[in-house]
Amino acid sequence: MTKTPLFDAALDKILADLVPHTRTCIETGEEFEITAQEIEMLKLLRVPPPTITWWAAMRREGAFLAGYDLFLRPTLNATNAISFYDPATTVPLVTKTHWQSDTFDAMAYNQDAKTDEPFFEQWQRLSNSVPRSALVQHGIKENSDWVTYGMDYKDGYGCYAGIGMEDAIYSDSCGYCQHVLETNFSGYCEFCYDSVMCLRSSRLLFCERCEESVSLTFCLACKNCSDCFGCTNLKNKHFCFLNEQLTEEDYKRHLSNIDLTEARIIAEWKSKIAAVWSRTFRCANHILRAEDELGDDIEDSRSAYGVSIRQSERVYGSYGIVECRDIMWSFYPKGSERCYGCKDTIHSSEATICIACDHCIDIKYSESLIHCEHCFGCIGLKHKRFCLFNKQYTEEEYWRLVDAIKSTMLERGEYGEFFPYSASPFAYNASHAGMLFPLSKEEVTRLGGRWYDAAQVTLNANIEDVSAIPERLADVTDAIVKRRFRCPETGRAFFFTAPQLALHRELGVALPRRHSLIDRIRRTLKTLPPRLYTRTCASCKASVATRIPPAMTAPILCGLCYEQVMIGEKEAPKS
């Protein structure tokens, strides 16, 4: 028998006559389709149809995930801690060690549930009172205090997410890499700099989407290549310069005239390569061993609609999905099933609108729960059952209150809606959404989000202008790690670490001349936000779904045509 008869009866009336149709997003004004498969998923997950597009849902959910910036913040433990919460946040903080310990009990911050008050107002009060861990990390190995959301890091600094990393600096969302600097969304790589979405490669400089390659510089979408410079869309090639085949001797002669240890030379070649890449053709999407799919970066999956979906089935309107089933409108869940509107929910089932919950069953509108069951509107609980707003109830009383609250939320149009931007403890521009979907301060304010203006520094005897950084790497001494410089674009102070300097010397590239945050966001945007556009293949003229926006006017090819061009069965399209 149903535990929530009033809610189920009201929801059944909404879902009974639902047919595939077009809706208008209340947040963006764009039209989007609700398909027959999605309707079946709504019935399974027990939620009404969404009111916003799936990519707008990813943006809203991403606003509840920290960004790259880190701060030194006071905590309730009377000590300062490294934190991803900006100084203007209203939530109280505790050290990571205290939050993970048995002495921290979020039940102490409970509040009574009120069936006649809007849910989100009650949630906001709870959110403002329950302390959060200053920083979230997962099993840091050694010497990696300044890593956010990382797992199994050794000697990491300024990195975000990722797993199994060693000697990594300002490198984000990478896996099993060593000796990488300013590299994003790459896996099984070593000795790389300023590269994005590369796999199983070594010594890549300023590269994007290269695989199984060695010693590439300024290369795009090259596979199984070595010793190439400024090349695009090559396969099984060696000693190529700007896609021209050279002898080994001629190739080395060309490279001898390009000194990347000088900042001016790097800037000149970045400008030249940007012009080349803006014209070269690209693959519309990357699909591998998948069926009944629509989207990009989908592998080993069935019935998948979205971006970055792996080993999953029946996933709709979602992003960053790994080993999941029956998922809809969700962001970064892993090993979960029957979840709707969930962000960073791990090994959980029957979760609706939840944030960073781990090993939970039947939880709704909750955040940071661990090994909990049947909880609604809770934050920071561990090993609890039948809790509502962090307060313990009997099983009978819990279901009675939940039925009343869910029914009222459904009537108000709240149930199924993700938390509003105003409820996020993160400023939008300091959140993950701010990197994937950058907005102006005015746009953020219209959405109800918060904006954080980072403090600028005043040039004085201790803060130097970037003109003081030597242009040539050979002129940089070890003493530079003791100096501070003012970023000309953000006005913020930055510095170089000893491991960072060592990698620059190993890779032979000049030091950067602005705050690392700028380039980390730039590389993130290169991966393209989780949003799909309808484009036309430049070869077969078929309609394709792609993350490549119309503003990028270079030709795009469907997956089949792209492979045919790569193996020489078709000519490359003209730019």
Can I get a quick summary?
23% of the residues lie in helices and 25% in strands. With 575 residues, the protein is an alpha/beta fold.
Question: Which tags fit this structure?
Answer:
globular, alpha/beta, 13 helices, 9-stranded mixed sheet, 575 residues
Describe this structure in words.
- By secondary structure, the chain is of the alpha/beta class.
- Among the domains are: 5-45, no CATH class; 463-526, no CATH class; 533-566, no CATH class.
- The chain is 23% helix and 25% strand.
- The chain has a nine-stranded mixed β-sheet with strand order 8-10-11-12-13-14-15-16-17, with helices on one face. The protein has a nine-stranded mixed β-sheet with strand order 19-20-21-22-23-24-25-26-27.
- Helix 1 (5-16) runs parallel beside helix 8.
- The radius of gyration is 25 Å and the shape is globular.
- The chain starts with a helix and ends in a 9-residue tail after the last helix.
- The mean pLDDT is 95.
Which regions have little confidence, pLDDT < 50, spanning 5+ residues?
Answer: none
Strand tally is 33
Assembly state here?
single chain
How would you describe the shape? globular
How far the N terminus sits from the C terminus, by CA atoms, comes to: 62 Å
Q: Tell me the number of helical segments per DSSP (H or I, 4 or more residues long).
A: 13
